Amino acid sequence: MRPDVLHGRPDSQVYESFAMTTMLSSDLPLTKIGRGKVRDIYAVDDDRLLLVTTDRISAFDVVMAETIPMKGAVLTQVSAYWFGKLEGIVPHHMISADTDEIVAALPALKPHRAEILGRAMLCKRTTVFPIECVIRGYLSGSAWKEYAQSGTLAGEKLKTGLVESEKLDPAIFSPATKAESGHDENITIAKMREVVGDEVAYTLESMTRAIYTLGEELAREQGIIIADTKFEFGRDKNDRIILIDEVMTPDSSRFWAVDAYKPGQSQASFDKQPLRDYLDGERRAGRWNGDAPPPPLPASVVDATSKRYLEAYRRVTGTELKI
């Protein structure tokens, strides 16, 4: 099936099914070569990888003990939706996000079909550039904090008089270094050129702008503002620079509702905000110091966060998530 048209049961039934089969960590009959905060990475052969998006969730750089039902499927299928939309615009690494196609290509995964349902993506292998390609269409988050303090973004001056959440026209390309743990660090474009070279830096910025322009336009038609987002790129075996990892998901992007947008203040977002709000409350109450281990999450917070991810999928794609 196409990644942008998923068939199956009504959404409520899908949710109930995944609530019983959430994934904290995967264990597949392939060689695991990486484990991020959310994704497990397996080697298939010299040319292919299998990305498995678990239901792990992190906030404030701490991974929670609890899983979020449907989160892995949402992230995988939102990315698959965007990869489909980007065909012919930028090359990318997705081979398939269809579980049956993946099992057909890798028969050893047949006993694990239920485990990876909706959350696995077969991809081309690349040599990854050590840069997060961030693009900001609106002044928010860490960018707003820096601007409010010094009038800069990654040390470069912006025009005066901007307010929180103001639209940036044109959008600002703001690269960052990739951190193994903790926050990525914003860097200047000049520093990026030192790391990857002038030609690659130009290509990464051009591809980033092309992807964001399309995504921002299509999302706005669905009532969503993509305030900012980040991309990763790699070089494939044919020496092409291609888009990899996830694309404009609730984890890699800041999503706002068009009809609720008001510049001059922070905006409600379609992501893990219920989780952040709960943890903020625990810190203010002195029950958590911000370090691991995190406090246990109430079922109500887990449920609200899961529903927020499902709503993000609905708003971005215009359809219910059905697998």
Written account of the structure:
With 323 residues, this protein is α+β, with helices and mostly antiparallel strands. It has helices at 11-20, 71-85, 99-105, 113-116, 141-150, 189-196, 198-221, 273-284, 299-317; strands at residues 31-35, 39-43, 48-53, 58-59, 62-63, 94-96, 120-124, 127-128, 131-138, 152-153, 156-157, 167-173, 176-177, 185-186, 224-235, 241-244, 253-257. Strands 8, 9, 12, 13, 14, 15, 16 and 17 form an eight-stranded antiparallel beta sheet that branches. A hairpin with a 5-residue loop joins strand 15 (224-235) and strand 16 (241-244). Helix 8 (273-284) runs antiparallel to helix 9 (299-317). It is globular. Residues 1-20 have low confidence and may be disordered.
Q: Helix amount, in percent?
A: 25-40%
**Separation of termini?**
10 Å
Tally of helical runs = 9
Strand fraction equals 15-25%
Arithmetic mean of pLDDT: 91
CATH-defined superfamily of the largest domain: Phosphorylase Kinase, domain 1
- Low-pLDDT regions: 1-20
What's the CATH C level of the largest domain? Answer: Alpha Beta
* Tally of separate domains: 2
- Quaternary state of the chains: single chain
CATH-level-2 architecture of the largest domain: 2-Layer Sandwich
- Profile the largest sheet: 8 strands, antiparallel
Secondary structure tally: strands: 17
The CATH topology of the largest domain is what?
Answer: Phosphorylase Kinase, domain 1
Rg is: 19 Å
Coarse structural class: alpha+beta
